[in-house]
Amino acid sequence: MGRAEIQNSEIRCTMVYKMRAVIPYKKPNAKSRLSSVLELHEREEFVEFMLKDVVTAISKGGIEAIDIITTSAGSVVDDIEANVIVNELGLNEALNGYLKIVNEPVLIVMADLPLMTPLHIKEITASDKDVVIVPGKGGGTNVLFIRDPTSFYVKYYDSSFLSHCDIAREKSQSFEVYDSFLVSTDIDEPHDLVELLLHGQGLSKSYIQKRFGIEVSKGRVKLQPHQKFNSKIGEMVE
């Protein structure tokens, strides 16, 4: 699949696909909640690897048409095989605009799900329901599969999982909740990196593995930085 940069959310397709996947993506000042353990340039490199892992899982899961929605085309590295849609609107506005103009089932996937596998993609898209909702931690929504995009809209932030269940009912759409620990684990906080080290397999794990290990203490697994200078506290840490 070739790559195209698309302005103003206009999607130009030369082929008709059975379904599409769309990934909202932000690189500048990414993952600020990881700033206590990763510097800015490390966080921006890390989100690139997570995006690559997500794209790989989607494509190996059987979806060839992959779009990335971002506010800046330059933030998506050239070796990712996907269409780049430049849209400066907020998350909900950009995605709802996208849903109005696609004419096939859509899988919305967050870009920070490096534990997701091709099998997850196949299982989610194999559902006979109108909508499949994959919850994230704290009431969020990590993945949405929408069979008829023009009959649905998204409402992220706050408790988006409950919002999307309510929207499905409002629109008289049948839906199911796909419950998966691996897909519900989005990487936002330092303790999420432990799950990546324990369960990950891709580029994201390799990147973090160079910087951290894990330590078992009192029955709990904790993140353990490799020896380096911590500029935030001005001392060497093990």
Map the helices and strands:
Elements: E1 5-7, E2 20-24, H1 40-60, E3 65-70, E4 83-86, H2 91-101, E5 106-109, H3 118-125, E6 131-135, E7 141-146, H4 160-170, E8 175-177, H5 181-184, H6 190-199, H7 203-209, E9 212-217, E10 220-225, E11 228-230, E12 235-237
Parallel strand pairs: 1-4, 2-3, 2-5, 3-4, 6-8
Antiparallel strand pairs: 5-7, 6-7, 9-10, 11-12
Helix pairs in contact: 1-3, 1-7
Overview of this structure, please?
The protein is an alpha/beta fold and 238 residues long. It folds into 2 domains: 5-184, Spore Coat Polysaccharide Biosynthesis Protein SpsA, Chain A, CATH 3.90.550.10; 190-237, no CATH class. It is built from 7 helices and 12 strands. The protein has helices at residues 40-60, 91-101, 118-125, 160-170, 181-184, 190-199, 203-209, and strands spanning 5-7, 20-24, 65-70, 83-86, 106-109, 131-135, 141-146, 175-177, 212-217, 220-225, 228-230, 235-237. Residues 1-17 and 229-238 have low confidence and may be disordered.
Gyration radius over CA: 18 Å
Outline type = globular
Described by strand count, sense and barrel closure, the largest sheet is: 8 strands, mixed
Structural class call reads alpha/beta
Write out the strand line-up for the largest beta sheet, numbering strands in chain order.
Answer: 1-4-3-2-5-7-6-8
Helix content: 25-40%
Could you give the order of the helices and strands? Answer: EEHEEHEHEEHEHHHEEEE
Number of strands: 12
Q: Report the uncertain regions.
A: 1-17, 229-238
Query: Ends: how far apart?
Result: 44 Å
For the record, the count of structural domains works out to 2
State the helix count: 7
